[in-house]
Design brief:
single chain, 2 domains, 7-stranded mixed beta sheet, 6-stranded parallel beta sheet, 9 helices, EC 1.2.1.38, oxidoreductase, cytoplasm, amino-acid biosynthesis, NADP
Length: 312
């Protein structure tokens, strides 16, 4: 039986991980009482007595937690942005390549991708890897997310009564074009410069749809909609959680962002015309975009079936 400690279990991601692991018979969950959860000595003891440690903390606290790990056997899965671009950490997106998967399996340090970044990278990494576009392509990305991605404070804001009527409308944010997921979006895909990224939060709890448009004339390899769809289908073939979907499966031609809530699935959609291509990735920002991805990485690190306790 493996011992698991979730440092930061009280946050949205930590609670979701706890729920996914709570019913498993192959794991022993180490917990701290409310009065000790911020006590450094108690946290250190829990970290060093665990086989797997999940860090669901702000960046500075996550970096501090890593320094508390004394044992070389302790494996750490960090859900913060602190280590996502570090070459010493595996990037927790096993579907990107066999090299990514193998590094996760063998690593003692894994960084879980950001939710927006997961959608962007699922679309752009295969394009770069296959030489369909060059690393200096001027990428633009739009992403619509439910308010749970903003954490407890935003959840309380949206679910309070009465509330500001402006919350009824989708709201653009990170208007200075410096969102915290941009470094990993740029680095993991090997881009020459960061994309223009426009995130939008809307009045629903969870679910995300990330879109990336392409000009076919600017692609290194000019391909039709059907050719690109086939390329993505082949790229993610035999992957448990990522599938290409057809237009016929959409609800009246609308691509909604909350269809995959409660799952670890990710769906890729390709559409457009001869001049412009639309790529979209939709998933649960709390699932494949956060806690589900973390549990998937843990399963791989422990040599288990990656789908264990995850809903496909």
């Amino acid at each position: 039986m493996y011992s698991v400690f979730i440092d930061g279990k009280e946050g949205t991601t930590g609670l979701q991980i706890y729920e996914r692991l709570g019913k498993r018979s192959d794991l022993r969950l180490i917990t701290l009482s409310e009065e000790l959860r911020k006590d450094a000595a108690s946290r250190k003891e829990c970290i060093n007595s665990a086989d797997i440690v999940f860090l669901c903390l702000p960046d500075a606290a996550a970096r501090e937690a890593v320094t508390l790990a004394e044992s070389g056997r302790v494996r750490i899965i960090d859900a913060s942005t602190a280590h996502r671009t570090s070459p010493d950490w595996a990037y927790g997106f096993p579907e990107l390549s066999e090299a990514h998967r193998e590094k996760i399996v063998s690593s003692k340090r894994v960084a879980v991708p950001g939710c927006h970044a997961s959608g962007f990278i699922s679309l752009v990494y295969p394009l770069i890897a296959g030489g369909l576009v060059s690393p200096d392509y001027p990428f633009v990305c739009h992403s619509v997310t439910g308010y749970s991605g903003g954490g407890k404070k935003m959840i309380a804001q949206y679910e309070s009564e009465p509330r500001d009527t402006r919350l009824d409308s989708p709201r653009q944010y990170a208007l200075g074009l410096s969102h915290k997921h941009l470094p990993e979006m740029t680095a993991v895909c090997g881009l020459s410069h960061k994309p223009i990224f426009n995130p939008i939060v809307a009045d629903y709890y969870s679910g995300m749809c990330v879109t990336v448009p392409l000009y076919t004339d600017l692609m290194t390899k000019k391909m039709s909609v059907e050719q690109i769809k086939t390329y993505f289908a082949e790229y993610y073939a035999r992957r448990n959680f990522i599938k290409v979907i057809e237009k016929e499966t959409l609800d009246g031609g609308f691509l909604s962002a909350n269809d995959l809530c409660g799952t670890n699935r990710m769906e890729i959609y390709v559409d457009g015309n001869d001049e412009q291509i639309l790529l979209a990735s939709r998933f649960d920002n709390l699932g494949k975009g956060a806690s589900g991805a973390a549990v998937q990485c843990m399963n791989l690190m422990l040599g288990l079936d990656e789908t264990t306790s995850l809903t496909e």
